[in-house]
Design goal:
57% of the residues lie in helices and 15% in strands. By secondary structure, the protein is an alpha+beta fold.
């Protein structure tokens, strides 16, 4: 009986050592976890502070003696809406896909509108020819939209005598 009690004491002692060892390992993990959280909080606080102090508008950064209108550039931009285009897309299957596209072009001034209006059929033709050769896969994702925008910019600038600053999508539906 006494041997059984001693064995139990030894086993309890080993268990106590194992329990203490586990507690030490757990305490080390807690320190690393709290340290990581502290670093994360400091990084987020630093980013937030940087945003608050350095991301004000230009009006906030104008010196007292300067005029706000002198700092800001005058914008005489004009947006001209092109007619809505509906085209069937190129497809290998019997299922037809359609694209409805509504765009506006950004011009420098009102004078450019008067130069573009007589050439509008040429612009629409170049857009239609390009759009009919597209597949649905060509329009997927932001890369497809970016590529489409660049191609339309290139085609409109080749068709008109003034510089078109941007092509803006108002509506784009693929069905």
């Amino acid at each position: 009986m006494s041997e059984e009690v001693e064995n139990e004491d030894v086993e309890d002692g080993e268990a106590a050592e194992d329990g203490e060892g586990k507690k030490k390992k757990l305490a080390g993990k807690k320190i690393v976890l709290f340290g990581a959280i502290a670093v994360l909080v400091l990084a987020l606080g630093g980013a937030g502070g940087w945003y608050v102090f350095f991301s004000g508008s230009e009006e906030d950064h104008v010196a007292e003696g300067e005029d706000v209108e002198a700092v800001a550039e005058p914008l005489d931009l004009v947006f001209y809406d092109l007619p809505v285009m509906l085209v069937n897309l190129s497809s290998n299957s019997e299922k037809q896909s359609y694209l409805k596209l509504s765009v506006a072009i950004e011009l420098e001034d009102e004078e450019a509108v008067s130069l573009i209006e007589p050439l509008l059929p040429r612009v629409v033709d170049r857009f239609q020819v390009y759009l009919r050769g597209l597949r649905v896969a060509d329009l997927n994702g932001s890369a497809g939209m970016f590529h489409l925008k660049n191609e339309l910019m290139r085609r409109v600038n080749a068709a008109v005598p003034v510089e078109v600053k941007d092509v803006l999508f108002k509506e784009m539906i693929v069905q």
